[in-house]
Specification:
Elements: H1 2-15, H2 30-52, E1 57-59, H3 64-86, H4 90-113, H5 117-166, H6 169-181, H7 188-200, H8 211-235, H9 241-261, H10 264-282, H11 285-310, H12 316-321, H13 324-342, H14 353-357, H15 375-403, E2 413-415, H16 419-443, H17 459-467, E3 473-476, H18 478-492, H19 501-522, E4 526-528, H20 535-578, H21 583-596, H22 602-628, H23 632-663, H24 668-685, H25 688-704, H26 709-721, H27 727-748, H28 757-767
Antiparallel strand pairs: 1-4, 2-3
């Protein structure tokens, strides 16, 4: 059973790195949640059966580290309940909470397996192999992908622009469909950001959305590999020349890709982890004391910095005097703290950070971030004070164990037992992870394409794992594993990761190896002889198995089934909208998706956008009628038809906006689209009361996102149209704010936020005497 559990754990761990983990909030990866929970059930059943048969059983003690991770998961559950109460983004909160249930199940599984040094070594070898594969993929991206993708994109964009000018609707529709399938933005600030990233950068990102996330994984794998390399000399069992060569090649690949990411936080993390390994290996009392004092000083400095930031000592003047590379992070953190001061107990809730953060985003910051770029603040935002206390307890426990590592009698040991089993488990576990991912994509109807071939470079990690040889599993000790976990945590001080399953599993897998091996060396793990049975723990294992089954049923009913059924309808709708150019069929599919998943925001947002687009087309028709038609009677008839159509379509559009708002009352999108619909209706119907309602709605949008120059421009424009007393003054104030934000954006070089030249001129005219 232990063999199969290790095999499945490695396969699921590999599969977690084969999809964009940043999409966990939307529901991707829920099939892996089900598998982790079922694996947890199998683990509990195996322990129950072993105890019932009075066979030898080792149980991982439940300590401070375990409690910390449990509190993070519980914090997610509590904060999700609050999200339901305030009607935030319930789908994102549910999906991420399900992910944390699986993460906790994986943690307890890792803790149990790693009590056996042989199993721990296999897990570490698997993590290093995954790091090698990601490095190979990242190196390919740097040297090949960017050049090929840039050439393809520029060619397609030129074809699209030419087709739009010449009226080639079929060709334009085909290119738009290609862009939509590849998640390429078609217009607006999203397009500018995407083009800047593709055409102006060469940082690899592998399967992640950001190079910084990949860099954190690589830094962790690098420290693990260095720990393996140094352990051979510590034990006196130096690897053979061939095995040493392979390990050095692995480390060189990881290091090269890590350098290409240009992630300073990951470089710092790798440096910290490497220094820890060197200090622990040296066994010098002065160096060990220095490490302990360094850990204590870092903890104290962190507490002081956190307190200063929370109570306002970290103001904008301090931020603007800091190095440019830190300025944006400091702006993110101060804005996050201001948000958390308003939501201290439950935080924003899982997947609900951006909605509340935008009200506190600094004017100098451009990016509408999804997380605070700091794992402690993210734990607070996602899980409230319960989640924050759990993360602080986890970090404190790891640092305490790291500081006490030198006082243990543990020495790195290589395993030479079960050589044939070792040779099978590691590569087959990694290969099975690829098979699981491919099978799931096939079940979803995604066919294999040549564009996916580069992802197979991850198999390089499997090849290296096999080439390491059948005879010896590399030595590993708790110091190397805890140093690797520390390296990742240093990176996470300046990067998001709490809601990324692969990142958290990497962190907790390293931590489980370190904690379990340290417990085993201290004999903290409980060993039961064949003559006795601990009845409470015996039945607790069976209870745990039923709990995991119950959780899996909940995930299936409220997560996997509605999310993936609705996703099929969204795919149908996207094809109808962009390839077939059939808005009515697309609208029907979006409505079907909304009925399937009661908490889905994407389908409702698309419905509102389609209805708003219909109104804009109607407005354009009325304008063309006035310009192009010379016969006054025909003009009046056309305008009459436009107004009647507007009276019919506007209520549907407002209803669609209200439906979107009811799905997530914290999200600005519904209110912004509602303001647009009311504005169009007011202009076509010439209704001053509707215009006032549009102004009030736009003011709400400005209050929810006050640092957006576009929001202030729209408010100034609407107020300028209103003839009521006081509106001109409000228009002038909004115009002044618009120009202020425009100047800030240009000073900081936020090109994606620049207003068009005619918009700036229109605002300037509002301020003229």
């Amino acid at each position: 059973m232990r063999f199969s559990l290790t095999l499945m754990a490695l396969s699921l761990l590999t599969a977690e790195f084969l999809w964009p983990v940043e999409d966990a909030a939307s529901g991707r990866g829920l099939h892996l949640v089900m598998l982790w929970l079922m694996l947890g059930m199998l683990h509990a059943v195996s322990r129950w059966r072993a105890a019932g048969m009075k066979s030898e059983l080792r149980r991982a003690a439940f300590g401070a580290t375990d409690l910390g991770i449990l509190l993070i998961a519980v914090g997610h559950i509590v904060s999700t309940a609050v999200v339901f109460q305030v009607e935030g983004d319930r789908r994102a909160a549910l999906n991420l909470t399900f992910q944390w249930m699986a993460i906790f199940a994986a943690w307890r599984l890792f803790r149990s397996l790693c009590l056996d040094r042989h199993q721990a070594s296999q897990l570490v070898a698997g993590l290093v192999a995954i790091g090698v594969g990601l490095s190979a993929f990242g190196i390919w991206q740097h040297h090949v992908f960017y050049a090929e993708q840039s050439s393809w994109y520029l060619g397609k964009r030129a074809e699209l622009d030419q087709a739009m000018v010449q009226g080639g609707s079929m060709q334009a529709s085909s290119i738009v469909a290609e862009f939509q399938a590849a998640d390429i933005p078609l217009e607006g600030s999203d397009r500018i950001l995407w083009e800047n990233r593709l055409l102006s950068s060469t940082e690899p990102f592998a399967m992640f959305s950001l190079a910084n996330t990949l860099a954190g994984i690589l830094a962790t794998a690098l420290v693990l590999g260095l720990g393996q390399l140094s352990a051979g000399w510590t034990t006196g069992q130096r690897p053979r020349v061939f095995e040493l060569t392979i390990l050095v090649v692995q480390l060189c690949l990881i290091t090269y890709c890590l350098v290409l990411t240009k992630s300073r936080s990951a470089w710092l993390g790798a440096t910290v982890g490497t220094v820890i390994v060197i200090v622990i290996r040296s066994r010098a009392s002065l160096a060990v004391k220095g490490l302990r004092w360094g850990i204590a000083a870092a903890g104290l400095a962190g507490l002081i910095a956190a307190g200063a930031a929370f109570f306002g000592a970290l103001d904008k003047e301090v931020i603007l005097e800091s190095p440019r590379s830190l300025q944006f992070r400091l702006l993110y953190w101060t804005g996050t703290l201001e948000m958390l001061k308003e939501q201290p107990l439950a935080g924003a809730g899982p997947g609900n950070f951006r909605q509340l953060y935008l009200a506190h985003k600094a004017n100098e910051s451009s990016e509408e971030i999804k997380d605070p770029h700091n794992f402690l603040l993210e734990a607070w935002s996602a899980g409230g004070l319960i989640g924050l206390s759990g993360m602080v307890l986890f970090v404190g426990s790891i640092l305490r164990r790291l500081a006490s590592t030198s006082s243990t009698n543990e020495t790195p040991q290589s395993s030479t037992v079960a050589s044939r089993q070792t040779w099978k488990v590691l590569p087959f576990g990694l290969l099975l992870g690829f098979a699981l991912h491919a099978a799931w994509e096939w079940l979803k109807g995604h066919s294999f394409s040549p564009d996916q071939i580069p992802k197979l470079l991850l198999l390089a990690g499997v090849a290296f794992a096999i080439m390491r040889g059948r005879r010896v599993v590399p030595a590993i000790d708790s110091a190397s594993a805890l140093a690797a976990a520390s390296a990742l945590m240093v990176n996470l001080l300046a990067a998001g990761g709490i809601e990324m399953p692969a990142v958290m599993l990497m962190l907790f897998a390293c931590s489980a190896v370190g904690v379990s091996l340290q417990d085993a060396s201290k004999k903290v793990a409980v060993a039961k002889s064949s003559a006795t049975v601990d009845l409470p723990h015996h039945w607790a294992n069976l209870t745990s198995a039923f709990i995991f089954v119950g959780l899996a049923i909940v995930v299936l009913r409220f997560g996997l089934t509605p999310v993936y059924t609705a996703e099929r309808q969204l795919s149908i709708a996207a094809d109808a909208m962009y390839r077939q150019r059939n808005a009515q069929a697309a609208l029907a599919a979006y409505q079907q998706a909304a009925e399937i998943d009661l908490f889905d925001t994407t389908s409702r947002q698309r419905i509102a956008e389609i209805e708003a687009y219909r109104l804009s087309e109607l407005e354009q028709f009325s304008k063309l009628s006035e310009i192009e038609q010379s016969n006054r009677k025909l003009v009046d008839e056309a305008l009459s038809v436009s107004r009647e159509s507007m009276k019919e379509l506007l209520p549907k559009a407002i209803e669609a906006c209200d439906l979107l708002i009811s799905t997530d009352r914290r999200n600005i999108s519904g209110y912004r689209t509602r303001a647009v619909c009311l504005t169009i209706g007011a202009r076509v119907l010439n209704d001053p009361e509707m215009l006032k309602e549009a102004i009030a709605e736009q003011q709400r949008v400005v209050n929810m996102y006050p640092s957006s120059v576009e929001n202030w421009f729209e408010l100034a424009t609407l107020c300028n149209l209103d003839q009521a007393d006081g509106s001109k003054k409000r228009a002038r104030q909004a115009a002044e704010k618009t120009l202020e934000l425009e100047q800030i954006n240009r000073q900081w070089g936020h090109q994606d936020r620049y207003l068009a030249k005619d918009s700036v001129e229109a605002v300037s005219r509002m301020l003229s005497p």
